[in-house]
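User: Can you recover a sequence for this backbone? Please restate the input before giving your answer.

Assistant: Of course. Working from this structure:
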């Protein structure tokens, strides 16, 4: 009587984990696009291991279908902005006035090194 007011016993919890139907939420499925590859892979493996007990309500499937592309495109926006910022920073470095070779300070060497490092990061971002 009034079971909802008493926590389940350890044996009940164990039974739930072994036999309960698992219902996923839309955000669980969309998180596959929002997390790292390793996390997405792990979540996929967990869902696959529960496949015989996994249930997805119609509403979850509908919301997933409606939101999947916007989540994917939303994940590319920060990537594109980072690339744009790196390119602008590189251009700022390259636009610095040239200093005479006999000047005591040679910031151009530092600027060139930074521009080369930025190029490497731009290449990495472009290949992803």
């Amino acid at each position: 009587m009034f079971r909802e007011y008493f926590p389940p016993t350890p044996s009940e919890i164990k039974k739930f984990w072994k036999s309960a139907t698992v219902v996923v939420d839309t955000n669980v499925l969309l998180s596959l696009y929002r997390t790292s590859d390793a996390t997405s892979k792990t979540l996929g493996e967990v869902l696959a291991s529960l496949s015989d007990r996994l249930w997805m309500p119609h509403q979850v499937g509908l919301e997933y279908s409606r939101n999947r592309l916007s989540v994917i495109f939303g994940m590319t926006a920060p990537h594109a902005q980072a690339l744009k910022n790196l390119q602008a920073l590189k251009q700022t470095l390259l636009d610095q006035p040239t200093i005479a070779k006999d000047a005591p300070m040679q910031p151009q060497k530092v600027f060139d090194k930074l521009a080369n490092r930025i190029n490497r990061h731009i290449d990495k971002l472009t290949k992803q």
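That completes the design. The helical segments are 10-19, 26-34, 37-49, 58-94, 107-127.
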